[in-house]
Amino acid sequence: MHSLGDRESQKERKTGFIKSCHRFRKAAILGHKEEHVIDISKDASCAENCTCSSCLLLAPTISDLLNDQDLLDVIRIKLDPCHPTVKNWRNFASKWGMPYDELCFLEQRPQSPTLEFLLRNSQRTVGQLMELCRLYHRADVEKVLRRWVDEEWPRRGRGEHPRNF
């Protein structure tokens, strides 16, 4: 007689159950020389800001949010102003390695320094940007980004498809 574990592994083999990354599972039926993907679902084993290659391929990048002008306007309004007790774009850029001379240069340009900072870090994920928000206690900016990731990003139809390089 087979144990429950044996039956489950046999079932996985029969349906062609594949684990491709510890975050995403693909249930596939193998047959007729092709693979049909049935379902993709999140595995709870990945952390929220997982940096494994599969998770990074599916995570929205700053480049993705640069296409949303309304979101950019809100972020600029929140991060452009200089205030002695509130962390802004300067702190974020410095944390991500921007040299002091470049920070000063961006302040002198007519374009938003926040936008410049985002453009120069467009390959990073929105999750990484939200980490900076948490680090600098900018819950207001994090909330805006979280809403965009949860509501706008999936609507764009990109959240479920890997990015091609």
Automatic annotation (TrEMBL):
Coiled coil: none
Protein's UniProt keywords contain Cytoplasm: yes
One Pfam family hit: Death
Subcellular location, record wording: Cytoplasm
Domain Death: 76-149
Gene3D superfamilies with a match to the protein in the record: Death Domain, Fas
Leader sequence segment: none
Listed InterPro entries: DEATH-like_dom_sf (IPR011029), Death_dom (IPR000488), EDARADD (IPR039200)
GO terms of biological process kind: cell differentiation; signal transduction
GO CC entries: cytoplasm
Keyword terms, alphabetized: Cytoplasm, Developmental protein, Differentiation, Receptor
Function: Adapter protein that interacts with EDAR DEATH domain and couples the receptor to EDA signaling pathway during morphogenesis of ectodermal organs. Mediates the activation of NF-kappa-B.
Name recorded for this polypeptide: Ectodysplasin-A receptor-associated adapter protein
Record organism: Delphinapterus leucas
